[in-house]
Specification:
The complex is a heterodimer of chains A (261) and B (276).
Chain A (H helix, E strand, L loop, with lengths): L1 E11 L6 E12 L4 E5 L6 H9 L6 E6 L2 E2 L7 E4 L11 H11 L4 H14 L15 H13 L5 E5 L7 H18 L2 E6 L2 H7 L2 E5 L6 E6 L11 H15 L15
Parallel strand pairs in A: 3-8, 3-9, 6-7, 7-8
Antiparallel strand pairs in A: 1-2, 1-4, 4-5, 9-10
Helix pairs in contact in A: 2-3, 2-4, 3-4, 6-7
Chain B lengths: L15 H30 L6 H12 L9 H32 L1 H16 L5 H9 L3 H26 L2 H9 L4 H12 L1 H17 L1 H5 L8 H11 L2 H32 L8
Helix pairs in contact in B: 2-12, 3-4, 3-6, 3-9, 3-11, 4-6, 5-6, 6-9, 7-8, 9-12, 11-12
Classes of the chains: A alpha/beta (261), B mainly alpha (276).
Chain lengths: 261, 276
């Protein structure tokens, strides 16, 4: 379970001395095995929020707890899938998946088997010896998902993971993600700016806008047995989401400064 | 890679003989300039400037066993190669270790990098008094000079390489639970490799080039650089030119035998961008 309590995040610009408040006193809870989407225009702080939960940065105020303990840094219990696959180009697909397993202390046959299993989950075992540059964008993102699944994290944190893919690859990856999620019942936090994607994937959607008042609206989607991209219900959700988003500015200038952790 | 019709360098060269000519052209140019200079100098100054032919004949004699300064050309070459290898190895180890540290920890970079940049400005010959003071006349001083001139470009390139490793790779590694050790060895080192290779290349060249200066202070009397310097007194200029040719040839061979395959196996295979 993820518990975000009164979290604020302010970015300082060291050159000008200015600072920007990106997240202002935001609170919410994500339950175990829930699929929650964060939807909002770019620059609204949704990626920052995910980075805070991942532990890449610390909040300026407030606390974030994961399964009861405070988040103080990144770790394999919260698997992150980034917008870019960020696979290590110097490792083959299999070696990329094994990287985290090695960090966790898995060795030899154990490590190979687990890597193999999770590459199977994303249907890429046939490409295990390929280097990332030899794979398509969709395949790379599958490997990125596999390397996180291999670690059996408590939660998946996904930061617009499919936004750089073409429409076909995106939909197939969405379906695979849902299948994996159903099989393994992970908690998923999914950041997106795509209305259809949020409506199709999520149990619950938190619509975000720029600070202050980051959390604009929360929509729970009653659980259906099967998801559909074209059902009346999905269309209604999309409609509703569009209405809320229309009240928000379409884009917010960037401010985020990356810092090494 | 798809051929780009607007890229002049990728226009195909047609026939086989044409291609052979193309690959020989640089050598022919060097020989032509060399002959030109040799004739002009001989004509204007009345001193015998060794032509490529003179040098070639002398090289063949030497390869056949004719001694230069009481030693065979092989002894000179091996002596130089050994010094170079040891000096370069020390510089590479120190340069990579230092570069990784300074590339990662900002304070180390802020405090130590200015001195490295200053090191790079010191001309090779200027190290002679320093080397002699520190090591006395002999092998230690020679190795020091080779190492110190090779160190700066390696360190500077490694620092740049580490700093340019995409922050997202670091995040990904941390997210998967990588320790510092794993981060350095499995992420920063390979991530910086294109720059490391280009640093090693420059460092190796610098070390080889300072050889002549470095061997000025060897007492032992073997080495290509030593032989070149001594030709001032013996007036054996063709012998000196032979040493020069060998120095250049070794540099080329090392480039082809070490760096080209190293890049092919790593940077190119990984589809990474080569460092300029």
């Amino acid at each position: 379970m993820i518990r975000v309590e009164n979290v604020s995040k302010r970015f300082e610009n060291n050159d000008t001395g200015d600072s920007v408040l990106v997240l202002d006193d935001i609170s919410f809870i994500v339950n175990e095995q829930e699929f929650v989407c964060f939807l909002g225009p770019s620059g609204c702080g949704k990626s920052t929020l995910l980075n805070l939960i991942a532990g890449f940065m610390r909040p300026s105020a407030g606390t974030i707890r994961f399964n009861g303990s405070e988040v103080v840094g990144p770790g394999p219990d919260r698997g992150v899938v980034f917008q870019d696959p960020t696979l290590f180009p110097w490792l083959t697909a299999r070696r990329n998946v094994e990287f985290g397993l090695q960090a966790l202390g898995f060795n030899g046959k154990d490590r190979r088997n687990r890597a193999s299993e999770s590459l199977d989950m994303v249907g890429l075992n046939g490409f295990r010896d390929a280097y990332p540059h030899q794979l398509s964008g969709g395949m790379r993102q599958r490997v990125a998902l596999a390397r996180v699944l291999a670690l059996e994290p408590g939660a998946l944190l996904m930061d617009e993971p499919f936004s750089a893919l073409d429409a076909n690859a995106r939909e197939r990856l969405q379906d695979e993600l849902l299948r994996i999620w159903a099989d393994h019942m992970k908690t998923v936090l999914f950041v997106t700016h795509n209305v259809e994607e949020a409506a199709y994937l999520a149990d619950r959607i938190i619509i975000m806008g720029p600070a202050p008042a980051n959390k604009r609206k929360e929509i729970a989607i009653p659980r259906r047995d099967t998801r559909s991209r074209s059902s009346a219900e999905t269309s209604r959700t999309i409609e509703l989401l569009r209405e809320v988003l229309a009240e928000l500015p379409c884009c917010i200038p960037p401010h985020q400064s990356r810092s090494r952790t | 890679m798809t051929p780009n019709p607007f890229d002049r360098s990728s226009r195909p060269i047609s026939s086989y003989s044409c291609r052979t000519l193309y690959s020989l052209a640089p050598l022919l140019l060097i020989l032509a300039v060399w002959y030109g200079v040799a004739w002009i100098v001989t004509w204007l100054r009345g001193v015998p400037f060794p032509t490529p032919a003179d040098t070639g004949m002398r090289l063949i004699d030497m390869l056949g066993g004719q001694p230069l300064l009481d030693r065979s050309i092989y002894t000179h070459t091996v002596a130089s190669l050994l010094r170079w290898a040891v000096g370069f190895f020390a510089a590479a180890t120190a340069g990579i270790l230092f570069g990784m540290a300074a590339g990662w920890w900002r304070p180390v970079e802020r405090i130590a990098m200015p001195s490295v940049h200053i090191l790079q400005l010191v001309p090779g010959l200027a190290w002679i008094p320093v080397a002699i003071l520190m090591f006395g006349i002999g092998e230690g001083a020679t190795l020091f000079m080779i190492a110190i001139t090779a160190f700066a470009p390696i360190a500077i390139n490694v620092v740049n390489g580490v700093k340019r490793v995409d922050e997202m790779y670091v995040r990904a590694a941390r997210m998967m639970g990588a320790s510092n050790r794993m981060l350095f060895l499995r992420v920063l080192l390979p991530g910086a490799l294109p720059h490391i290779v280009s640093g090693l290349r420059v460092g190796l060249g610098n070390g080889w080039r300072v050889l002549v200066a470095a061997e000025m202070i060897v007492g032992s009397g073997a080495g290509l650089g030593y032989a070149i310097i001594q030709s001032r007194w013996t007036l054996d200029y063709p012998g000196a030119f032979v040493c020069l040719v060998i120095i250049c040839a070794v540099g080329l061979v090392v480039e082809r035998l070490i760096f080209v395959p190293l890049e092919r196996r790593t940077v190119e295979r990984w589809g990474m961008q080569r460092a300029a």
